[in-house]
Specification:
- The protein is about 60% helix and about 15% strand.
- The protein is α+β, with helices and mostly antiparallel strands and about 290 residues long.
- It folds into three domains: about 1-65; about 75-125, Orthogonal Bundle (Helix Hairpins), CATH 1.10.287; about 135-285, Heat Shock Protein 90 (2-Layer Sandwich).
- A five-stranded mixed sheet has the order 2-4-5-7-6, covered by helices on one side.
- A hairpin with a 2-residue loop joins strand 4 and strand 5.
- It is extended and about 90 Å long.
Length: about 290
C-alpha cells in the first residue's frame, strides 16, 4: 500500500512538472490563445520551479547527511568490538594462566556477539516491513519481561538501580511475533537502564484501556524536552546527551521498534516532563 502511494505521488509529480515546463515553453502562444494576463503564467511557473529546485536541494543534502551519519555510526559501532577481538586475540598468543585465558575468550565471544547483533539490526531495517517475516503466536508479556531483566541483571546491580516490576498477574495473552516484540521490550528496558543515572528507579507495568493494552517502562533518567519528543523515533536520531551517556548506540532500535509495533496495529509513545525528569515509553497493542 505504501509503495503504491509512492508510485501515485511520483506520477502526479511528473505530470505537474511536465505541465509547468509546457506552459513555460509555450508561454506566448498560451497567453495569446486564451487571452490571459501576461503576468499570470510567470506567477504560476516561477514559484513552482523555485519550489521544485529547493525540494531537490533539500533531498540532496538530507541524503548527504544521512550517508555521513550512517558511515560514522557504522565505523564507530563495528570498530570498537572488532578492535577488542584483535587485542584479546593477541593477548591469547602469550603464555597466560587458564583463568585469565578463559576471561579473554569470553570477552572475544561477547564482542563477536555484539557484531552479530549489529548485523541483525541492520538486516532488520530491510526486513521489518516484510509481512511474511512475522510469525504470530500466543505470547506472555510477563515471560518476555522476566527473561530480559535476567539478561540485564548484572548491569542493573552495577548501576544500583531500583526496579519496580509488575507481576502481570491478570495480563492476558496476546497474539504477537515473539521474537520481534521481545526486541521492542528489550529496547525499552535497555534505554531505561543505560540512560538512568546510578541509584535511579525504573518501573515496568501495564494498563488496559478499552481494547488496547499498554506496556510501559518509566524511569528517572535524563528525559527529553522540546523538539526531541518529535524526533525520538526517527531513524539514526540520537541527542547529544544520549551520545555522551551511551556512545555505542546507533539510533536505530527505537525506530525499528516503532515499525514493529505498527505491524502489530499498535503504536509506540514517549512522554517526559523535561530534561533530567525521566521518561515513560509506551507500547500500545490491540487486545484483539
Amino acid at each position: 500500500m505504501k509503495l503504491a502511494w509512492q508510485i501515485v505521488k511520483g506520477i502526479f509529480f511528473l505530470l505537474y512538472l511536465g505541465f509547468i515546463f509546457y506552459i513555460v515553453w509555450d508561454y506566448a502562444e498560451i497567453t495569446t490563445t486564451y487571452k490571459l494576463s501576461p503576468y499570470l503564467i510567470p506567477l504560476i511557473s516561477v514559484p513552482s520551479i523555485l519550489a521544485i529546485g529547493l525540494k531537490f536541494i533539500e533531498v540532496y543534502y538530507r541524503a548527504e547527511r544521512v550517508e555521513y551519519e550512517f558511515t560514522a555510526i557504522v565505523n564507530h559501532t563495528f570498530r570498537t568490538p572488532l578492535t577488542r577481538v584483535m587485542w584479546y586475540s593477541k593477548e591469547l598468543e602469550k603464555d597466560l594462566p587458564a583463568d585469565e585465558r578463559a576471561l579473554y575468550v569470553q570477552d572475544i565471544t561477547n564482542a563477536t556477539t555484539r557484531v552479530l547483533d549489529i548485523v541483525d539490526l541492520f538486516a532488520g531495517i530491510k526486513n521489518i516491513n516484510d509481512r511474511s517475516g512475522y510469525f504470530f503466536q500466543a505470547t506472555s508479556l510477563r515471560d518476555i519481561v522476566e527473561r530480559i531483566i535476567i539478561k540485564y541483571r548484572a548491569e542493573i546491580n552495577k548501576r544500583g538501580l531500583l526496579f519496580d516490576v509488575s507481576t502481570f498477574k491478570d495480563a492476558p495473552m496476546l497474539t504477537l511475533d515473539l521474537k520481534k516484540i521481545t526486541f521492542v521490550v528489550d529496547t525499552m528496558l535497555e534505554n531505561a537502564i543505560f540512560y538512568t543515572q546510578k541509584g535511579g528507579k525504573i518501573s515496568i507495568d501495564y494498563t488496559i484501556n478499552g481494547k488496547v493494552l499498554s506496556l510501559y517502562v518509566r524511569d528517572t533518567g535524563m528525559g527529553f524536552a522540546g523538539m526531541e519528543r518529535f524526533r525520538i523515533f526517527n531513524r539514526f536520531y540520537r541527542s547529544k546527551r544520549a551520545i555522551l551517556m551511551n556512545p555505542d548506540g546507533m539510533g536505530l532500535k527505537l525506530y525499528l521498534s516503532s515499525q514493529i509495533i505498527k505491524r502489530h496495529h499498535g503504536k509506540m509513545r514517549a512522554v517526559s516532563l523535561g530534561k533530567d525528569k525521566g521518561a515513560t515509553f509506551y507500547m500500545d497493542l490491540p487486545l484483539s
